[in-house]
Amino acid sequence: MKKDFRHIDTPFYYYDTALLKATLDAIRAAIASQPNYHVHYAMKANASPKLMQLICQAGLGVDCVSGGEIRTAIAAGFAADSIMYAGVGKSDWEIRLALQHEILSFNVESLAELEVIQELAEQEQRIARVCLRINPDVEAHTHTHIVTGMAENKFGIAWEDMMMVIEKAKTFANISFKGLHFHIGSQITDMQDFKDLCERINVIQDQLNAQGVYPEIINVGGGLGVDYQSPSENPIPDFNAYFSVFKDCLQLRDGQSLHFELGRSIVAQCGSLMTRVLYVKQSGDKHFAIVDAGMTELIRPALYGAYHHIENMTSTAEKRQKYDVVGPICESSDIFAADLPLPTTQRGDILAIRSAGAYGESMASCYNCRQLPSSYTDTEIE
Q1: What CA–CA distances, in Å, run from 28 to 120, 237, 239, 249, 307?
Q2: What pLDDT score does 156 carry?
Q3: Smaller CB count within 10 Å for the chain: N or C?
Q4: Rounded distance, CA 37 to CA 138, Å?
C-alpha cells in the first residue's frame, strides 16, 4: 500500500479494489471450463456497497443470511434469482420478503422451518424453492467457533433425518424441493476437509438415487481460508486447487448444478483497518502501543483469538521493539497483538491491520457509544 494515510481521520477501513478485481478474475478463470459451477458471494463477510457492486458486476450470485442482507443485495444490483437464503433462524417477515422477491432458493435447516415456509408460501400464493441443509458430520480443521458441519453443531438437518424431511417436502403444495446444501466451516486451508465433504456427498447421493430422489442442485457452501500470516505474499487464495477438489472428487449427476458460497476468500485480503497510535507506554518489561481502533472496529482477535498481520506504515526506524498493540475499549480482551515486533513506534504513527476485509467492518459495533468506522477504496485516496 503506497498511500499516505496520515491526513485521514482514523480508524477507517481501506479497500484495495484492484486486488478485489484480480481475486474475482481468478475465480472466474478457475471455473471457466465448468459452466454448471455457480459462485455466490457470502455477503455476511462484508456488505459494503462499494465492494458489493464490484462483485455483482463480476457476475457472481449472492448468499444471504437475513432479510436485511436480501434487501442490501438487491439494492446493489444482484438479481433475486441469484440469491441463496441461509440461516438457522429465519423470521416470518424475512421469509415473506424472500418469497415476494422469488429468490433462487431457501437453504432450509429444519423440518420446523420447512413447515413455516410452506404456511407462509401458501398465504403469499407463491412457490418456495428449497434446498435442505444437511449436517454431514464432517470435521473441518479450523477454529472451534467456526466449525458448522459436525453433529453437535446447531446448523442443518441430521443426515439420518434427511429422507424423512425430503418426503415431507414433497407433500407440500407450495414447496419445490431443488437440492441439498452443505457447509462445514470457515477458514479451511486443508483441502482434505473438502475432499471428505465430497466423499460424504457422494454417499448421500447414492442413497437418495436408490430411493428415486435426484436433486437438481448441490450446494457445498464455502469455507476456503486465506493466508493471515503473509497477506502480501499470498493475496489471492489458490482457487484452482479449491475448485479442482470438487471437479476431481465430487460425483455430480447429469444436469446437476454445483453452487459455492465464498465470502472470506473473496474480500479478506483486499481490506485493512487503518489505525493511529495514540500513546506508547511502558509497564515493567511491557511496551504498549495504544491505538484508536478497538474491538468495536475489528472484533475477531477478541472473539476468536484471531491473528492479523500488523504493519507500521509511517515509522522509518531500523530498531525494532516488541509491543502489545491494544485498543481504547474498556475490556481487557481489546488486544490486537501481544509481543509484536514493530519498528520503533511513536504517537501519530499509522498502523495497518491486514486481512480485515472479511468479518471486520461487517461486525463493527457502537459499544462504548463509539461511531462506526468510515471506509475508503484505493480510488478515493490519492
Answers
A1: 37, 13, 9, 20, 29
A2: 83
A3: C
A4: 22
Question: Stretch 234-262: mean pLDDT, rounded?
Answer: 98
19: number of Cβ within 10 Å? 18
Q: Please, are residues 183 and 146 in contact by the beta-carbon 8 Å criterion?
A: no
- Binned at pLDDT 50, 70 and 90, residue 146 comes out as very low
The residue to which cell 455476511 is assigned: 44
Contacts of 104 (CB under 8 A, 6+ apart): 61, 80, 81, 82, 83, 84, 129
Q: pLDDT class for 39, splitting at 50, 70, 90?
A: very high
How far is it, in rounded angstroms, from Cα 208 to Cα 201? Answer: 10
Question: What are the DSSP E strand ranges found in the chain?
Answer: 12-15, 37-42, 61-64, 83-85, 105-108, 128-135, 157-158, 175-181, 217-219, 257-262, 271-283, 286-291, 310-312, 320-326, 335-343, 350-353, 374-377
Model confidence pTM above 0.85: yes
Q: Give every CB contact of residue 315 below 8 A, 6+ residues apart in sequence.
A: 342, 343, 344, 345, 346, 349
Task: Encode pLDDT of 117-144 as tens digits.
Answer: 999 999 999 999 999 999 887 755 444 4
